[in-house]
From TrEMBL:
Signal peptide: none
NCBIfam families (UniProt xref): 3mg, PRK00802.1-2
One Pfam family of this chain: Pur_DNA_glyco
Protein name: Putative 3-methyladenine DNA glycosylase
InterPro entries in alphabetical order: Formyl_transferase-like_C_sf, MPG, MPG_sf
Gene Ontology biological-process entries: base-excision repair
A GO molecular function held by the record: alkylbase DNA N-glycosylase activity
Keywords, comma-separated and alphabetical: DNA damage, DNA repair, Hydrolase
Protein family (similarity comment): Belongs to the DNA glycosylase MPG family.
EC number: 3.2.2.-
Species of the source: Tetzosporium hominis
């Protein structure tokens, strides 16, 4: 499999978030190759997006990679989970796209073991689940999506794309309602949406 070219990642963030759907996420591990079609993404639009880690132009040890060239890998920890993102936009414009869910393709026996032999639909239907299934860790922080062993390749066409609010960003003001989540319509591996909790100010 051939990695996508660096030019692919130069698309505007919202376009890239949709273009990622159907692409094949590949990890060449010591135990074998695991891969899955991307079926759900979330775009985070940098300094003006209250839900983004780089809101207000915050540049920290964690977010530093977001200020680099598009196509870098941005991983971060949430509780016990590793989440993985595609850095987007030009240098100094810290946008990123979270990969929320994938459809298992190659290495399914290894994925099953990595996910404690849970039912297949639960292996990769969430951002922390898919990294466990595919053996993705914080060690991938700052590497490039077009250089193995972790990379994106051409996958399959997606016939229908849906969009809606992002998940798990309840304390993000009006950004909680932005329709920056994209998914392959009716794909069974898309994560479950839970409406944000209402606050007295809404």
């Amino acid at each position: 499999m051939k990695p996508l070219s660096p030019e692919f990642y130069t698309l505007p963030t919202l376009e890239l978030a949709q273009a990622l759907l159907g692409k094949l996420l590949v990890h060449e591990t010591e135990q074998g190759i695991v891969s899955g079609y991307i079926v759900e993404t979330e775009a985070y639009m940098g300094p003006l997006d209250q839900a983004a880690h780089s809101f207000g132009g915050r540049k920290t040890k964690r977010t530093e990679v977001m200020f680099r060239e598009p196509g870098h890998i941005y991983t971060y920890q949430m509780h016990t989970h590793t989440l993985i993102n595609v850095v987007a936009e030009e240098v100094g414009a810290p946008h990123a796209i979270l990969i929320r869910a994938v459809e298992p393709v190659e290495g399914q026996d290894l994925m099953s073991r990595n996910r404690n032999n849970l039912p297949k639909k639960q292996w990769t239907n969430g951002p922390g689940k898919l990294t466990k299934a595919l053996g993705i860790t914080m060690e991938h922080y700052g590497t490039l999506w077009y250089e193995p062993p972790l990379y994106l390749a051409e996958g399959r066409e997606v016939s229908s794309i849906s969009s809606g609010p992002r998940i798990g960003i309840d304390n993000s003001g009006e950004a909680v309602h932005y329709p920056y989540r994209f998914w392959e319509t009716e794909n069974p591996y898309v994560s479950k949406y839970r409406a944000p909790k209402k606050t007295f100010s809404e």
